[in-house]
Every structure is written in C-alpha cells, then in structure tokens.
Amino acid sequence: MGGIKMAENTSKKEEFRKFLERVKRGLDFIEEIWVEREIKHPPKSDESEGLLIKSEGLFCIAKTLSGKSASNVTELLRDDLQYSFERREFAFRFIAAKPGSGKTTIQSYLCQLIDAQSEYRKSAIIVKFRCGKLLSQAGVESFSVKFFIYALTQTFWEIMRKDNEVLSEDIKLIAEKSLKKIIGDEKAFSLSGKTDDYLGYCEQLINYLSEKKDNFQDRFFLNLHNFKENDSSATFVYLIDELDSLDSSPQYLQDFRVIMRELINEGKDKGLPIMVYIAGNSRFMNDFISPDKGLSRRVVPSIINLISFRKDECEKIKSKIEERIYDAYNGCQDFSTAWQEIKKIQLEATKHYNSLGEFCNSFAERIIEVHENYFDVYDKNFNQYENKARRIFEDNIKKQWSQFIGDNFTLQSDCQEGLSGHHGHTKWQKWKGKNGYSILIAQSNTNLLYKNESKHSLDCYAELYKGDDLMAKAYGEAKNYALIKEHINTFSQWLKDFDFKPLRTHPDLALIFSPSCTELQLGKLELKHIKFIKIEKIFSPPPPPPNTSKTINNSEVININLAELDELKAIFKGTKISSINTFNKLIKGRPYNSVEDLTRRMKFSDTCKTHLQKKFANGEISFDKLN
Predict the structure, then answer these.
(1) Residues 6 or more apart from 317 whose CB is under 8 A from it?
(2) Which InterPro entries does this UniProt record tie to the protein (predicted)?
(3) Cα angle: 138, vertex 208, 190; to 5 degrees
C-alpha cells in the first residue's frame, strides 16, 4: 500500500478509529449503531403471579408509565419523558438485564433524548452515579446518610458547574439561594469559586453538609420541594447503575430498599418532579425486590426487562458498521481489498458472543484490525466535496449576514492574505456590500490560530468587517460521509477555542456539511448553534481488485446495461425495488454510467444507492457501455 498520506485522510482515519473503539468498548449509548429494540407488554399471567424479572425470551418486556402503547425502546423512553417533563408526574424505573445487554445504554439513551430537546435540556438536572461509588465514600455513616449526602452534592454540582450553559438561569438562582439557606452565605460564596473544579467543589460541599448533622433524607426532599414551589419546570433525573455492587453488604441492601420506598412514596404521593432509573443484573434484581412485598407491588409496573440479544439486532448493528466503513472509505485505492476482508468476518452466537455488548466487542475488534491495515491512500473525492461545500458556505453566510452587507455586493478583490494574518490560504476573496460592510472569504483550508500558539485547520472560513473593524466570523467543516460523534465533538471544541459568539448583534456563524445526520445529532447541533447542511456524497468507486470476480446465480459480473429482468431482480433483492414497471423503466433508460447516474435518474432512495454501491465495490455489477 503506497501513496501520500494527506491531512484530511489522517484526520478521518483517527476519528473513525475513535468511533470503532467506542463500539468495541460498548459501555455507552452509541448513536451511530443504535438499532431499535422491540418491546412487548408483560403477559397478565406474569404480573398476577409476581414474575418480575425475566432476562430470557424472544423480546424485551416493559410497559409505559402513562398507559399508552409502545412497540420499541425509543417510544417507551419518549413516553417516560413526556410523562415526567410535560405531565409533571413522578417516573420510576428498574432496568434489569444480564451484563452486556444494554442496561447502561438505556440510561445514556435517555440522556441523549433529553439533550436533543431544548425545552427538556434547559430544565433537566441529570445526576448519574454507580452504587459502587458509595461503597468507597469515606466515613462510618449509614448507607442512607451516604446516599442522600452524595445525591445532594451531585445535584448542586450539576446545577452550579460552570460549563452547564444550557440550564435555565432561574434554576441556578434557586439552587444558589437553597445552598445559602443550607450552609450559610459565607460557605456558599466559597463554593462559588470552585464551579470549574469537580473534586474541589464536591469535597468541600460534603464537608459542609457533614458539619450540619441534619436528617439528610429530609434535607434532600425539602430541596426538591423548594424547586417545585419556585420553578415548575425543573426536573431531576437520577440515573443509578450497578445496583448489584451492593450484593456483598446485606445491610446496605436493606438500607437501599428503604431508600427506594421513600423515593417512591415521596415522589409519587407528593408529585415531585423526579425521574429515577435504577439498573442492575437480572438475577440480583429479583433477589433485591422479592423479599419486600410492599416494594414489589409498587415497582412491578416500572420494570424494563432486557434480553441479552436477538440475532437480527446483531445483524443490523453489523450492517450499520459496514455501511459507515463503506461510506467513509469507498474512494480509497485499497478499498476493494479491504472490503473483501470485512465481508469474511463471520461471528456465531454463543460461540463468539452471548450479548449485544459482546457482539459489538468481537465485531469491532476484527474491523479495527482491517481498518488499521488499509485506507492509508489519499481519497481524491474529498477535495471535490470540500470545494462544493465552500461554494455553499459562501452562499449561506452571505444570506445570514445580509442584514448587514445587503443583497447586492460586488467582488472587490482577490488577495493572498487575510486581514487578520491567518495562515494556510492560497487566496481570499473580498466582497463589498452596503454601509461600509464587507466579507472576506477564504478559498482554501485555513489554519486558524487560537491562544496565539495552536491552530486548527478549517475547511471553510470567512470574516465580516465594517471598514477595518472585524465584526464576526464564520466557520465551516465538511465531511464526505455520514457524521459521527467525533466530528461534532471536535468541531464544537474548536468553536470553543475560537471563542465562538453566535448570539451577539453581529453573530458568529458555524456550518457543518455532510451527506447525512441523525435526528439526535441534528438536535445537538442546533443546541450548539451549528447549522447542518446536507450535501450528497461525491462518489467515484475504485475498480474491483484483479481476479476477484463474484458470481450471482452462477453468472459472472452482471452488466447493468445488458442485464435481463431476472438478473436485475437478483441485483435488487433486499431492497424495496420489485415492481415490473420499475424494472421496465430502468431497462428503457439504459445505458447508465454509474451507480450515481442510475439512482439519480431512477430517483432511487439513499438505502438503495448504498445497496448498489456495495455490489459495485464487490465486483458484482458493472456499467460497461454497449458496443
């Protein structure tokens, strides 16, 4: 494998490596490979007989808190959020599953759904902790005291931390007043200087609370009542994981049962704005709940039973990973060889994995090996995509800044350097508008300095001037494949480094270009004031490797421009293309130059396009012209 490594290609590989490592770890919600988990309503016989936790079976089992129907996990969680945030009801859940079956993922997914809704996010106080963390807390206090001190501390930290910029200022003000009432003005003022120091803040607040010798359970609930009375929108979300870590301490278990009863009684009976999600191992959950009949009766309707995996779920995850590999690298010179290596990867249930987590670990581990051995050669399609993004970037910033520069502007000059002395350009263009305003637009990548020492290489960049005064900046990034978490995180951090100011009179602008973006990603981008613009992928697939022709129905590579009806049906098997009229239209429209040409002229979906691109890369189809 030869070739010159380019900066963008290196960046792409590094970002994609991080994505694959996330899949391999499988410790959190991974939006890029999320597949819907079907759920069924618990049989009435199970409820009447007190059968609480079942980790085996064909489907996950749960029912909504509102009484509405839900067919999958997303519908269930969205109903929970509506139940709590909009109806202002107390929400309590036990999540039971074997290790690796998605307990923690459910909690993380709930957070993502909250983050994607601006109205939810600005009123949500999300506190996450593991039960095992409480076991390591210093002191000889009872488990109940440790729990409520820790919960209070984490609650105030989440509200007051300096980087929680989305949370409502009204909620922060209530918390500030509550804290002064609990520990006094002087100590509260001392804490206000530590809102960027997690350990310092929490340790100091724990010390202050410990000095009080209060009934911390009462203090915890009084605090929640105070928020309810002063801000009806505040909603507290407590995500507690690893309940089974308390298995070694029978007294702690009994204390925790009491805590759960108090949370349910106080929350449900007095209508406190709380969501409590507790996750643990299925077998342990049964042992925890069963001895307490009163607790059992109250939590039976709230349990989410997750099975370890379904084979179709694993196949969908595999397909999503393969699609992203294909989408990101199909322009690379060595792609066809790498793709063959990927298609050889076969995993068997019970032999290679026994849960969704184990499947993700095993499959990603094998994909990473291929990923590291290939895809080092520069992808020429990216430059074409980047140039297209710059043209659209220019049009967008002119429109968004039109209130200053107007709708009629002229190209005043081309220049070699920007007025701010940035580096990395071949050329700038200066556009002159009304009232002394002008826009300076970079025509190539921009190495933009920050903190006078480091630099980030932006795909698109522009500056708004009034006379010689810099008024605002615009930043853009382009990705010739579907967005992943790493893209958004990196661009968001860069904007922070650049002191991005999107809300002032002359707003800074941020745009990101990609062929696709998920609904959750779109919500996150909007919250960060980053505009997503869809640009179709530029795709020029490499020729298949020599001596690797594939067969379909015992035939050689099928030429789309010569294929018979039965051959076309075989090619499109697995898509929604099955109508004879559609095939006749396809045949009548021949010849076609490429997958892009075929899908554009036939108006096929992106899913169908990906299906055909894979077959082309595998050497299963061709577009040879008629003689």
Answers:
(1) 33, 35, 356, 359, 360, 363
(2) P-loop_NTPase
(3) 125
349 vs 542, more confident: 349
437-442 and 460-466 strand pairing:
antiparallel
Integer Cα distance of 535 and 388 in angstroms? 8
- Type of residue at 287: D
DSSP category for residue 331: T
Show contacts of 567-574: CB within 8 Å, 24+ apart.
571/612, 571/615, 571/620, 571/621, 572/608, 572/611, 574/611
Reading the block at residue 480, the tokens are 């010739």
Question: Residue 613: is its pLDDT beyond 80?
Answer: yes
Is 617 a residue whose pLDDT tops 90? no
Per-residue confidence (pLDDT) for residue 556, from 0 to 100: 64
What is the side-by-side strand order in the sheet with 303-305? 39-40, 60-61, 303-305, 91-97, 274-281, 235-241, 124-130
Give SS3 for 185. helix
Contacts of 38 (CB under 8 A, 6+ apart): 59, 60, 71, 72, 310
Tell me 43's DSSP state.
Answer: P
Name the amino acid, one letter, at 111: C
Structure tokens belonging to residue 243: 């309940």
pLDDT digits (tens, 9 = 90+) for 412-451: 776 655 445 455 555 788 899 999 999 999 988 888 877 6
In contact, 70 and 76? CB cutoff 8 Å: yes
Rounded to 10°, the helix 606-617/311-329 angle is 70
State how far Cα 590 lies from the chain centre: 41
- Contacts of residues 599-606 at CB distance under 8 Å and 24 or more positions apart, as own/partner, are 604/577, 605/576, 606/515, 606/516
**Count of residues in the chain:** 627
Taking the C-alpha atoms of residue 596 and residue 625, their distance in angstroms, rounded to an integer, is 15
Separation of alpha carbons 364 and 372, rounded Å: 12
3-state class (DSSP) for residue 423: strand
178, 223 contact by CB (below 8 A): yes
Structure tokens of 390?
């710059």
Q: Quick one: which of 6, 4, 128 has its CA closest to 480?
A: 6
Nearest to 222 by CA among 256, 277, 181: 181
One-letter amino acid of 436: G
Confidence of residue 574 (pLDDT cuts 50, 70, 90): confident
- Picking from 243, 227, 247, the residue whose alpha carbon sits closest to that of residue 235 is 227
CB-based contacts of 87: which residues, under 8 Å, 6+ apart? 66
Give the pairing of strands 437-442 and 428-432: antiparallel
Asked whether the beta carbons of 514 and 486 are under 8 A apart, the reply is no
Which residues sit opposite 274 in a β-bridge? 236
Share the mean pLDDT of the chain: 86
CA distance 336 to 278: 46
Q: What is the pTM of this model?
A: 0.78
Query: Once rounded to an integer, what is the mean pLDDT over residues 260-268?
Result: 90
Residue with tokens 């910029």: 165
Distance (Å, rounded) from C-alpha 371 to C-alpha 554? 31
Do 318 and 281 form a contact (C-beta atoms < 8 A)?
no
